[in-house]
Amino acid sequence: MLAKTRSYALNGVDGYAVGVEVDLNAGLPSYDTVGLADTSVKESRERVRSAIKNSLLRYPLHKIVINLAPADSKKEGSHFDLAIAVAILAASEQLEGRAYQDYVFLGELSLDGSLHHVNGIMPLLIAAMQSGYTKFVVPSANAAEAAYVAGTQVYALDNLRQVYELLSDGETHAPLETKTFVAGRTEDKYHVDFAEVKGQYLAKRALEIAVAGGHNVLMIGPPGAGKTMMAKCVPTIMPDMTFEEAIEVTKIHSIAGVLDPTVGIVASRPFRTPHHTVTIPALMGGGTKAKPGEVSLAHNGVLFLDEMPEYQRRTLETMRQPLEDGAVTVSRAKQTLEYPAKFMLVASMNPCPCGNLGSSTQQCKCSAAEIHRYLAKLSGPLLDRIDLQIEVDGVAYEDLRSAERAESSASIRERVNRAREIQRQRYRGTGVYTNAAMTNAQVQRYCALDDACEEILRGAFRKLNLTARASTRILKVARTIADLENRESIGISHITEAIQYRSLDRKYWE
Amino acid sequence: MTRYDADALACIRLSCETSLKKRCALYDSVERPSQLYDDYAQAEQIVQRLREMDAVAICRGDGAYPDALYASDCPPVALYCRGDISLLRDRRYKLAVVGTRRPTRYGKDVTTAFVRELTRAGVAIVSGMARGVDAYAHRACLEESGKTIAVVATGVDLVYPSENLELAQRIIREGLLVSEYPPGTPPMAFRFPERNRIVSALSDATMIPEAGERSGSMITANLTIEQGKELFVIPGSVLSPQSAGCNRKLKELQGSLTTSPDDILHAAGMDRRKAQTAARQITIEQQAVLDALQEGEMHFSQILDRVQSSVAELSALLTQMEIYGLICKLSGNCYACAPQL
């Protein structure tokens, strides 16, 4: 007697169908899994047997052979349990009819037969749906997440007994109702708003420009100047996530197992803050069981690196690929995975190891060599990918005490949205969405300068010690400033303001 | 290609002696340097190194050797040069600019402003390419397309401190880098005072913009006086330890008080030359900022309170004014009027 059920497995953020075949043979009772199953799949034996027994069903005393097809790809994860259990029930002729063949089963079994939450439900469902499967059985703990996949019939059940009932008599359980997406906001999570940031006009303005044009930002300032606070505010002025964006983010978070099971979707832009001891696999993704790293978890959101020069140089350098391509490729001997990683980098650093360089009140105790070493942690190619460098200064006591409320995130966001819309129109059909992502040809075309602007820029290079690499950055930022003002061409004030944001290039600490 | 005769090779060999006293004594002990050594293998090696990096050695007795050095105590037996060696015997007025390695903003501003003004008038700047005042002096001079000589205390193939690498390359291209030590000589504390005597000897006068009580610049200052040359000292704050040396010198030598580039130009018999930047019409907005900054340096938000403007407009305006040289940006988003002399 042979039975076949269907489950799904993940490869990066995409999935592929896995057929679970169970054959019962005569012989001493045994349970063998073939098809490159890893330990967690092989261990399913005990879970499946106990679960079947404790669901008041019969565990067949046969030589049981389980094959996971395709047999040449490695299967990981405990979510095959359910498909195996159902296949055993079908093979031992405990299920009436062939209803089980219409479903894709995803779920981990507990010894008492209940279904446990599994990671990656959203990407699994989407992948299966795209291949034409519409009926699913998932653990009820994954219900919130599964409900967002429209066009499917998803049964979220508590235990194996319910699955048995569903397959024997389909009327007993109803499929989930599809939920509609409501974009959430990060301020709900962190309770921050730009209205609470006192003073810091220049830094706030720079962050507005950065978000409007999708530029990466580096904030430089003494400890306690409010760099982290402002970084946390950045997602609050980013445009709301669209449903597609939210699904992309949820898929990644679901695979990594950081999705809140009660909410089921990532509705607000992620804000990730890996500590500076982060390892390369944790940041980029990978590991023996490949998982998305911090750069992917920050997809469509903000990756905040506090005290950037404290990170290992090697770690920082690996970020060059995602910053350039918007994706991370994790290569292993047997497989190559790609995780999306389109994030806005917000980094902060002190001007020197002690943090007091350039301060008007504190004396800097660092030697020139120490400062040089500290700044040299950031390589030229990395700095090249950071369009804006903002100097954040200590907040004056009066500013902190002032009752005046600054502009709120909501009103800044309106301006950002308008500027983003202009960019979307301009780059329609080119695969580029923001000014920061402009190609060289596009810079030439959309950032043309008139003679007066050219002269200012030339003067700036001479007078302010700008390095050559600053030029394209300045043009891109100037383009964004012009967009914020809804201007067709770049004017002198746009160029000069953009020059302001190149403080590292100006060899400020010379 | 420069050819070196036996005397020159002997001088090159002699320059490898570590002790300055010994070098002088040996040189004086014989009639011709070539009598000192029989074997020139080491000197030939150095010559080869010099050729590789396009440097030359100008030895005592050479036609190209600057007369000014003969007047000094213990003239160097050989000068290793990279760059324009005509500067050594050039008749133009040469000013040594030396000072602290850790200048305050005042020291940096004063150095830059004075050197720019003097360079425009045609003065050549001699300094030691050390960190701080020395480096600012060289840079300001080069920015005005002036002529500058760096006298270093290492071999001419090395750069110390290494952060001045770019500056050194520019000096070699547009000015002159000299040392009395053979290529490969590493920086050693005792060589810096020795180097100072060449700085002052090559120059017609010495200016000290900012120097602490125990600064090496004080050595240069004393040598300048000993050599009978003029010393120009710029006063600093009595509260600043980085100006303590200058202020003490001023107490001893009141005549050295210098408050304007004109003081130096007057002594040199030269005139100030107008800056070549076209006079620009100052707009109302710019004037408002300048008026606000009359009260001293100010933070961005303070300026914002004084002028009627948005953050974006003011930010653009300030950068523009900085490019025009009307104001300068300090760290911590503070601004000040550009120093006027």
Describe this structure in words.
The complex is a heterodimer of chains A (510) and B (341). Chain A has 510 residues and is an alpha/beta fold. Chain A is 37% helix and 17% strand. By secondary structure, chain B is an alpha/beta fold. Chain B has 15 helices and eleven strands. In chain B, the strands form two sheets. In chain B, strands 1-2-6-5-4-3-7-8 form an eight-stranded mixed β-sheet, sandwiched between helices. In chain B, strand 3, helix 6 and strand 4 form a beta-alpha-beta unit. At the A-B interface, helix 8, helix 15, helix 20 and helix 22 of A face helix 14 and helix 15 of B.
Please tell me how large the radius of gyration of chain A is.
28 Å
Average pLDDT level of chain A:
88
How many helical stretches of chain B? 15
Q: Can you give the mean pLDDT of chain B?
A: 90
Total E-strand runs of chain A: 18
Oligomer: heterodimer
Order of helices and strands of chain B: HHHEHEHEHEHEHEHEHEHHHEHHEE
Q: Provide the structure class of chain A.
A: alpha/beta
Distance between the termini of chain A: 80 Å
Beta-strand portion of chain B reads 5-15%
Largest beta sheet: strand ordering of chain B: 1-2-6-5-4-3-7-8
Largest inter-chain contact set? A-B, 34 and 25 residues
In helices, the fraction of residues of chain A equals 25-40%
Spatial sequence of strands, sheet with the most strands of chain A: 11-14-17-10-18
